[in-house]
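Protocol step 4 of 6: structure prediction from sequence.
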Amino acid sequence: MGQPGEVFINLVIPPLVAVVFGFIASGIGGYLVGPFKGPHGKKAPLVESFALGTLAIALLTLLWSLLGWLGPSARWSLALPLLLVGIAGLIQTRPTLALKPASFRNRTIITLGLVIVVAVLLRIILSPMVPPVDIDECRTHLPVAKSILDTGKMGFSPAISYGSYPQTAEMLYLWSIAFGPFTSSHYLNFLGYIFCLLAIVRLGRLVFSIKIGWLAALIMASLGVIQLAAGRATPDIWLVFYILAGTLAMVEGLKEDRPGYIILSGLLLGGAAGVSYTGLLASVCLVISLVAIGRGAWGNNPVPRWAIFGAVILFFLVSMPWYVRNIFWFLNPFFPFYSSIFRPGGGFYGVYGAECAIKSGWILQSELVSAYFSSGELWQEILGRWSTWVGIPAGIWFWRSSPFVRAGLTWILLIWAFWMTLGGATLHFQYYIFLVPVNILLVAHLMGFLYSLLPGDHRGRFVRIILWVLLIGWIGIAGARESKINPPLTIDQQVQTLSSYHGSYDLVNAANQVIPEDRRAVGILCEDGKLYADFTLLGGGDVGWANHRVISDSCTSPETLAALLHERYNSGYLLVQETRLAEQDSPVFTPIKTLIKSDEFPRTFRVVARVGQGVVYFVERPE
């Protein structure tokens, strides 16, 4: 393909795919939201319609993938009906924004909003010029979608790190990369980002005022963590969106006496639980917080029992397919976590066998909350963060502000109580991104109060300075991360970009030159290169977290490792990403490093290719 054709595909196709997908999802959701609206209005609200539409597409895609009906020709059996239903739904239901534009006039908010809109559009234009390079989107989320498209069906591959997680977002990415390049998945996340802003405007209007809603949207649009989640194919932005949409529906149902929206909230929070395991925790704790603290403040009308029962039923129906799938696959709904609870004593488990019985204790073991707790460093870590010293007094001050604020603070405390008692979470902020919208509403509530002061008040000017700083930070992040002087539009430019980001990309390409096409290879820490690899490693990439441990246990001698490669993996080639291996402190990788450095290793394994980041070994089949 010539350069003009490459430029056209990379610039035009990705946004077109996302826009068409958004219209189809909104049209399908327009039909589905009808039973929940009740007598209030004729048009379907756009946020809820889009949320229900994407959930319906994800669950139908899951069903088709489990049945093996997503091959190159068979996938049209689902795509064509979705297209027709989506178009019909748009025409008949005509989803509306339902924002009720603000009646106030504020030049700062309007100016900042317009500049951010322009910046968002600029970033969307620049996005397809850079291929997916984030480690998580390259080793897990996009490979899951690509694997289903390549095979036509869903199955667990130990080569895909965390490929057993709930995958609602990955089911959406599947359709984007089925009809466009990998960057099409970025546009779906931008779409989710836009709907997050629409949702928080309405939520702010419900719990505070329309001014607070727009101010919260402005702050949320300015946050770097949200922007980064919106610009790469990771499910974080979808978790934020479904939590926001579910909260919006529940508060609207409680405040305006609309039992149908209580049921709808259960369905949407079930969608959040299908995005990730943290979505399940977040949804359960959110319901407890809103119902226990906020219900009495929204009105005197009690919630009908049938509405509560319906919400619970729909929550389980929407979220449980992923957990039931993992019961069949691993006899553990939360695989790879809590294996000792569901599968005590070891042995053969589920469809995929004992080699998938990963021990999660060594994953990110130096960063787990439980590790900090057991070492006695937890409070030192927490008290050493500026956010703690700001958050605790702010929480005490905000507590009496409103029932919604109390519910939000209770939600945060419940989340942290879970991690403190059961462990398993890291202290990295990205794992708590679903808490962002509630905190934004609290900040917007405070800023909105200061905005109400008389013109010229120094406190109001201080708030405007903060907003401008947020905007400048946004432009800095956007410019540093997305703007490229020489954007990689062509295949050659993309290769250079990927090579600079992923050492495994060069290693896999080197392996392609020396390994026959009918042979497989096993990789050590090569998962970040598999998405773009022409040659198929074991299961599509690196051996993955589960089998790294199997390989580690077999590194007692070169002969034992060679026997493992041939007998278990039917492979005579070993790819080792030496740079990443040298950086690993986990005890799992210590035997691997020791064996490779030993004098006996070169006598059994022969070097057939070497690049700056790694090496390809070949070993003959033992007699």
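Step 5 (inspection) to follow. Residues 3-37 form the longest helix (35 residues).
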